[in-house]
Amino acid sequence: MRLILLGLGVVGRAFLEQLKIERRDLYESYGINPSIVAVANSKARIYNPEGIDTGSLIRYKEERGTLEGHPDEVDMESAGLVREIDAEVLVDVTPSNLTNGEPSLSYLKAALISGKHVITSNKGPLAWEMPALLEMFRNKGLKLLFSGAVGGGTPFLRFVKKCLSGERILSIRGVINGTSNYILNRMEEGLSFRIALEEARRLGYAEADPSADIDGWDSAAKLVILSNWAMDLGVTMNDVRVKGIRNVEISKELLFKGKTIRLIASADDSDLKVQPEEIDKSDPLAVSDALNAVSFTAEISGRHTLVGKGAGGRETAAALIRDLVELKMYMRGEKPC
Ligand SMILES: NC(=O)c1ccc[n+]([C@@H]2O[C@H](COP(=O)([O-])OP(=O)(O)OC[C@H]3O[C@@H](n4cnc5c(N)ncnc54)[C@H](OP(=O)(O)O)[C@@H]3O)[C@@H](O)[C@H]2O)c1
Hints:
By secondary structure, this protein is of the alpha/beta class. The chain folds into two domains: about 1-155 and about 315-330, 3-Layer(aba) Sandwich (Rossmann fold); about 155-310, Dihydrodipicolinate Reductase, domain 2 (2-Layer Sandwich). It is about 40% helix and about 20% strand. The protein contains twelve helices and 13 strands. The strands form two sheets. It has a seven-stranded mixed sheet, with helices on both faces. Strands 9-11-10-8-12-13 form a six-stranded mixed sheet. The protein binds NADP nicotinamide-adenine-dinucleotide phosphate. NADP nicotinamide-adenine-dinucleotide phosphate binds near residues 8 and 40.
């Protein structure tokens, strides 16, 4: 299986590492023999039709601080690479642009035009054009897989699709941003919002610009993906009302009453919102640290809540590998379990 990898950051490197660790099992259990023929980061494009030695590529990057000047560097843009190189799969782990999905959206369209399946953990294109993208890929007999885009390694999407198949999902409620959840947990312990945010930055939970996390936009993108997937709502970011946690206070009185505050993303029919909400401390969504939790309410079997790590390079790489296995089964005409 020939793969193009766009993005060599936390998730991209973890994906290559995990492929190396699982190479034998992937071949023996599923007949997957992946060959990475192209890799790109923001500055350089590397191509070798015989397959790139990814271990030495990463060493090259670590030693020189750049991929520029690598012997296999080619003078192409990422979209051209996707369009023109002979491969079956694009793995897109470039940064999520929640404003309009670009440039990843163009990479997905280039993959579609050139007949490639896509595995991605990038939320941007799905937040803006998921219904159309899914239809276009389906019409061409191609797979667009995105297990890692919501919940890192925790299989929220797979759980609702496979384990609750045949049931109508009436509503979704979730805590789907680890950074804001960490901050709210520390505020419960008495820290101010500002100090909790500084601490989250220091520990690497929050980015230098934390607005996507604390203003609710990251949660909104994931909510769009979850509700299109589980409830077939056909929505985009424009359909979500969003309020973040900047002005939240968690009083002692509230905690004394057995309540707390979490940033809740919810879809009830087509009413989609992200906002801080008071919930009982015993509610399964009152998760600690940077955990994620999603409750799906199914018509017959009721509420099901899945809790897990919402992010992490290795965890998200595990989701990409799951998608690779699903893709291989699809290519062989088998249904994944
Ligand atoms: N990290 C997580 O735990 C996690 C969990 C779930 C989903 N995700 C999603 O997974 C994706 C990757 O996350 P990450 O943490 O690995 O991000 P990251 O560390 O910032 O890495 C992004 C990589 O993409 C490269 N890149 C940027 N623009 C590019 C372009 N136009 N063409 C090719 N490569 C380009 C960057 O190049 P440079 O190295 O030159 O900057 C970098 O190597 C994001 O969409 C993120 O939202 C991440």
